[in-house]
Amino acid sequence: MKLTIDQVGKRYKGNHWGLKDFSLALAPGVLGLLGPNGAGKSTLMRILATVTRPTSGKVSWNETDIVRRPDELRRLLGYLPQDFGVYPNLNAVEFLEYLSAAKGLDSASARRRIDELLLLVNLADVRKRPLGSFSGGMKQRLGIAQALLNDPKLLIVDEPTAGLDPEERVRFRNLLSELSGERIVILSTHIVSDVEATATQIALISHGRLLTCSSPEKLLQAVEGKVWEWIIPSENLPDVKQKHLISGTIRRSDGLHLRVVAESSPASEAQPVSPTLEDAYLYFISKSRTENGH
Amino acid sequence: MKTFHLLYHLARADFLERIRRHSFLVTVAFTIYLSYTFLPAADAGYKTVALGNYRGIYNSAWVGSAMAMMGVVFLSLIGFYLVKNAVVRDEQTGVGQILASAPLSSRLYLLGKTLSNFAVLSSVVLVLALVSILMQLLRGEDYQVNLSKLLAPLLLISLPVMAVVSGLAALFESVRFLKGGFGNVVYYFFWNGLIASILIPRAKGDGGMVQTVFYDLFGITIPIASMMAAAKTAFPDYVGSFRLGYSFDLDAEKPAELATFRWEGIDWTPEIILSRLAWAGLAFGLPLFASLFFNRFDSFKKELKGTLEKETKPESEIKPGSTIPILLTPLPAGAVGSNWVSLFKGELRLMAKGVRWWWLAVAGGLIAAGLLAPLNVVRMVLLPAAWIWPLFLWSPMGTKETCYRTDQLLFSTPFPLKRQLPALWAAGFIVTLLTGAGAGAHFLLAGDPGGFWAWLVGVLFIPSLALTLGVWSGSGKLFEVIYLMIWYVGPVNKFPFLDFMGVTPQAIASDMPLIFLLISAILLVLAVAGRKKQLQI
Fold first, then answer.
1. Which one of B242, B344, B518, B524 has the lowest number of neighbouring Cβ atoms within 10 Å?
2. Nearest residue, CB atoms, A79 vs list B336, B354, B412
């Protein structure tokens, strides 16, 4: 099972490239796709979900070009878009039955699967309620259920935890980790903690380009010795902010405890600390912005 | 001052959003084409503005008034449907929620929307004005362009009508039951009644002159009265008839040309100008009235009602965040295949969802009556009735994926073009077949192969039209309007060339079923092409 993204680019109106020269090879596991808003994550997701055609490059699923033959992948695909709607007059069961028919599932398998999925996403008791009365979080959970209808080999979830409360978010993370065994899961988000909990590989993307892709451990190693805790008086904060990349601030009685990401110690009194994934993310994004002159 | 500033930005943002859409370019192109047809050449084979066998020379006065009259007749209908989406769009995009929470009164909001509607329709009138100048030169009967005579009718006749249409659109969008397709139908008949009340009494002529009437919203009695007086002077045998709208010389081998006379235009008296300004003033009073019905994007009550009715149990017994075993049974091999029948059933269910018992009772009654009533009644009354009843079941065809934003979910399923699109069409076909089943069976049992053949073509034509217009426009509105017009002019008013269900013997004799069969095939090809475009294949 292999998904290969080769030099993929997507050009929008006004010669703006949403994605450019993007290459990546994926094997079973959870890939966390991290990047700031507008980095090109959703464009990549849509291309991989066969909803958008790339302007250049090739995407292959087990050597099949899915740009030319998208239906080869669609049978095995589960996709939760960032922004999707539901039919307000249908209930959860009817909506999932409709989508399982669209995915080509036989009726008996679909019925059993829908029962299990509604239980899994905690919607079993509202299965007969019209979707028009669902809250944002409930719709999102229904979206997760529909993505799993056909037991997908490639699961693409774009900002899946948006609108979920903290407890539901934890449930979903657990679910993703459990599902990732024999399939490729691509999780796009800008919430670092979601990726931290589930991803086996992390790809950082900014301005439509891949910055790096490696395991969480390797990303952390890359910023080892570059994260510092520094206590400063509150009034110095504006100055420090201008000069350094700050990944955290805590106000204490002895002053502001800053978490600074820097190649070298920002001050003699600053102490090195263990980096987190959030520090690594900020380091790479900031570095890319500096290199691109943003 | 602050209010004007707010109003300006409300209208401006909405106006810019609309004119930057591709559909506005299509509207402009269509307006140019339509305007071109408003002023036919002498040997064109059709007429638009005629006083019996006479018309004015195409000078600035005549061109301006003819364009203004034809413009108001068409733009008052098409324009309404064009702009009746300003509030709905805010609802769909969620912008409405933001505006509702802002210190902005409903009156001001609706006035802003009316102004934006008016700005869009005025742009269309501007296009009409520019084409008018070109058309006068193109027809070349009088090369002297008098801008005041050419443009005054467009300013004083067309613009007040556009203002009223803008206000009516805001009103219809504010009243819950007029917001959707039902409102579109209501407006169509309202427009029809209004046009008929002005034009029909003047179509045949009684030898007398038409008086300018204050209550004439369209303002078309203003030029008509003046034109008639000039025609009577030029041609004493003129009996006072008047026609406005397309009339074709269908039977003539050589089109009959109209004799011409010189008309120097409207005498814009203060009374006439005042009447036009009064209509414009009334137009901007409509949003104030509409604000009485406007729910300010508050759908809470509706949702709450649904929730209370349906939910009797707590949401879930499983506590969020709890660790539960994942009990997903692996799918057996071969579980994912084609299963087209289930998809077809799903599309049919989606189409029929929300249908109430009384709707089914009427549909059932029409089927039974179609089977039992005399054949002539079935043909003339019951079949047209049976095939207008499901209008709102057909109109979402091809649009619901975009309207409800399920497109990404559906278009990433296997073979959406080969499976989902045919399933959708088939669901529409079945609805058409069932609702017309009484008449169809009656034709067959009565041994009327011509009637059955035309009926069958109708069954194919309606879902094809709905699907194609839905896929290409992304909204059910276009189908509702076009279908309603074809249905009203063709089967109801017995115009054989638009009679797609064969209720008139002339339609069957003229092989119209064959033509509509061909049109249905073309429509289906276009539907596939449109969906391919959506799928980016």
1. B518
2. B412
